[in-house]
Amino acid sequence: MFSFLSILLFLILVPILIKIVPTFYLRYKRKVTNVREKYNCEYALVTGASTGVGFAVCDLLASQGIKVILVSRSEERLEIAKKKLLEKHPNGSFIVKPIDLGQDGSVVSETLEREFGDYNISMVFNNAGYNVPWRLEEVEWSKAQTMLNCNVVAYAAVSHWFLNKWKTQRKGNERAAVVFTSSGASYLPTGLYTELYSSAKSFVSMFAQSFGIRARKFGIDIIDIQTGPVKSEFLKRAGFESLKESMSSAQDPSIVAKMMLNGIGKFYSIDQHWSVCIMQLVSQYLGANALCLLSRFMPQDLHRKKDKQKEN
Fold this sequence. Notes:
Strand order of the largest sheet: 3-2-1-4-5-6-7
CATH superfamily: NAD(P)-binding Rossmann-like Domain
Distance between the termini: 67 Å
Structural class: alpha/beta
Order of helices and strands: HHEHEHEHEHEHEHHHEHH
Number of strands: 7
């Protein structure tokens, strides 16, 4: 007979192993999956492609000979990114498409039809997103709506358009893939003026996982990746510069890009960093009430203190 203690340890350790094994496997797997061969990929589309994880994905795709379509709001930043990529991949093919994903979903769909209807795109990286540390009651709703459009609606609109395109145009055993960039913030209610961002990422993760179950029937692989701290401009743009200074565990975006390609077709969801694994396990074992209570003791005004210091 198993003792109570052994059963308890089993119930604790099994979820931990299930959570961390894929993370370490994908992180330390030496050879990057050749997605060009796996998906017969001529073109791949990457949103939020000008910096950070999006730029790293473009770099990795280009190294496999895939033609990359770079999508972001700023044409100037996209051209800078394209120039950097061409310096590294002189024979690469990079197409710049400045598109504002903060628009209404129907507008995004119409733009996709107009811009990409004739491209043979096999892979889509839903990566665009941003956070602004607003107090919900203080922000102009038009700005909040734009952020929600980019962080939530655009993910669904892009997926909707490509699913319909692939269902009607792909033949035989041809496969396609959609990758969603989520965040460990989706697991924890921090109160750090991230209520819109964290809830948006919760939607992205659940949407990707739910969408992924049915999409496999059509030969479409879906994966969402909950990123941990990444060395990028995200924290600076969000106003959390004081947090950025203390994030010694922040990782290079190329690690995230590598894990994305290695995980496609193998998993539905990846907790990409050890800190995200911990957040998910804490969320799982403590529950929402305990997490909200603990969050009350977090340094809510950390970024604002930094702003005040600058003013002084």
